[in-house]
Design a protein that fits this description.
Number of strands: 7
Order of helices and strands: EHHEEEHHEEEH
Distance between the termini: 24 Å
Strand content: 15-25%
Strand order of the largest sheet: 6-5-7
Largest sheet: 3 strands, antiparallel
Oligomer: single chain
Number of helices: 5
């Protein structure tokens, strides 16, 4: 296991635990740097949860999995208060978990994903 600061996660190790192709996930994380496209070697918890949500969306066939990453990452430390709802042909929705009524859609519970990321579990949402 590589050495990363507390609250941060090794990108390679995290991607290995997620249910989507590593090339797709690296594409979500990559940014343009001085040497071309670069993927960070480690990411903070809220980015790790966002990447896990994106991977779960991708593994369920969502076309807008990068949008899932961006929306979930923007929630920051409040991620555990929300779920992501994926419906065919519609953009992903981020809605409060409190009071959420089950629906005929794919629902990603961000609190569950955060627990799995922290625990080091394989995520197969």
């Amino acid at each position: 296991m590589s050495t990363v600061p507390d609250g941060w996660y090794d990108t390679t190790e995290l991607i290995a635990r997620l249910p989507a192709p590593s090339a797709s996930l690296r594409g979500v994380l990559s940014t343009k740097g001085p040497n071309g496209r670069e993927v960070p070697t480690s990411i903070p918890l809220h980015h790790a949860v966002a990447l896990a949500a994106s991977a779960c969306a991708r593994s369920r066939g969502a076309k807008r999995f990068k949008t899932v990453y961006e929306h979930v990452r923007a929630l920051g430390d409040r991620q555990r208060e929300f779920v992501v709802v994926l419906r065919s042909g519609k953009p992903p929705e981020v809605v409060p978990a409190d009071g959420f009524e089950p629906t005929a859609a794919i629902v990603l519970d961000l609190a569950d994903l955060e627990r799995a990321v922290r625990a080091g579990d394989v995520i197969s949402h």
